[in-house]
Amino acid sequence: MESDTSRQHAQTRPRLVERWRKSADRHLTPTKRSLIVTWVAFGTTWGTVRLITHGIRGGWLPWGNISAGGEHLHHYNFGIATLAGIGLIAVRGDERAVGHPAVAAAYGTGTALITDEFALLLDLSDVYWAKQGRLSVDVSLGFLSALGTYLTAKPFWDEVARVTRHHVASAARRGLSAAP
Fold first, then answer.
1. pLDDT tops 90 at residue 102
2. Is the dihedral of CA 123, 129, 131, 137 positive or negative?
3. What residues have CB less than 8 Å from 31, skipping those under 6 apart?
4. In 10 A of CB 156, how many CB atoms?
């Protein structure tokens, strides 16, 4: 049973998410926040697209490719359209949109959609499923996304790791000291 003292202590102790938010406020400029959102959107989109394309090809997803007029639409088409929209925002110079998380996410998403089919754009033939080099490209892009997310704000991630370790260690000590 929890004592009144430990309950009061828990109420005054900041939660882990609050500590992370304070770390973000100390270390992340608006530009770094935008870059993190961009990299996370890139990695998430790229991973999701890989999963969906494998699911369509493997027949374990209930839908198929997107087509228009009988012509297959590759996902780089959607990436190009997304980046064209982001470019329009940039050209207009809309100050409210500069650095906005939605703009950063759209940029990362559009870039991932294009990057995933870069070989197709480069060779102008559908080599998406060619075995040569596909695994290395997949691993490289996934690693690149994670690395970019980390390096964009290394001091922030280091503090988040330190705060999290301290939080977990404190919780473990409290748990051990509360044991009968």
1. yes
2. positive
3. 99
4. 20
Residue 82 has pLDDT above 90, yes or no: yes
Q: Tell me the one-letter amino acid at 105.
A: A
Q: List the structure tokens of 141.
A: 């892009």
Map tokens 């950063």 to a residue: 104
Q: How far, in Å, CA of 78 to CA of 40, rounded? A: 18
Report yes or no: 142 and 47 within 8 Å, Cβ to Cβ: yes
Pull the structure tokens for residue 44: 């998430």
Here the tokens at position 168 are 């977990």
Q: What is the 3-state secondary structure (H, E, C) of the chain?
A: CCCHHHHHHHHHCCCHHHHHHHHHHHHCCHHHHHHHHHHHHHHHHHHHHHHHHHHHHHCCCCCCCCEECCEECCHHHHHHHHHHHHHHHHHHCCCCCCCCHHHHHHHHHHHHHHHCCHHHHHHCCCCCCCCCCHHHHHHHHHHHHHHHHHHHCHHHHHHHHHHHHHHHHHHHHHHHHCCC
pLDDT at position 170: 86
